[in-house]
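User: structure tokens for this one?
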Amino acid sequence: MNYKFEELAQTHPEVLFLYVDVDDVQSVSSKYGVKAMPTFFLIKNKEVVRKIVGANPDEVKKLVDASAEPFETPQIVVE
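Assistant:
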């Protein structure tokens, strides 16, 4: 998934992609209720719009493609 994630970040420069290591930043994991890895979040205007649990590159790509507009708040991906 890392390769696909990086590829999406390069092809969608209008979206901010972040990687968070839940072992290093457990507060983020707790705040967003991460129960499995990887977990992907689309966050817009400080609200979780969509959550994808598991390594599903096609679903993540669809999410990014459908949401590829400038964000006021970043898209966060938690693994």
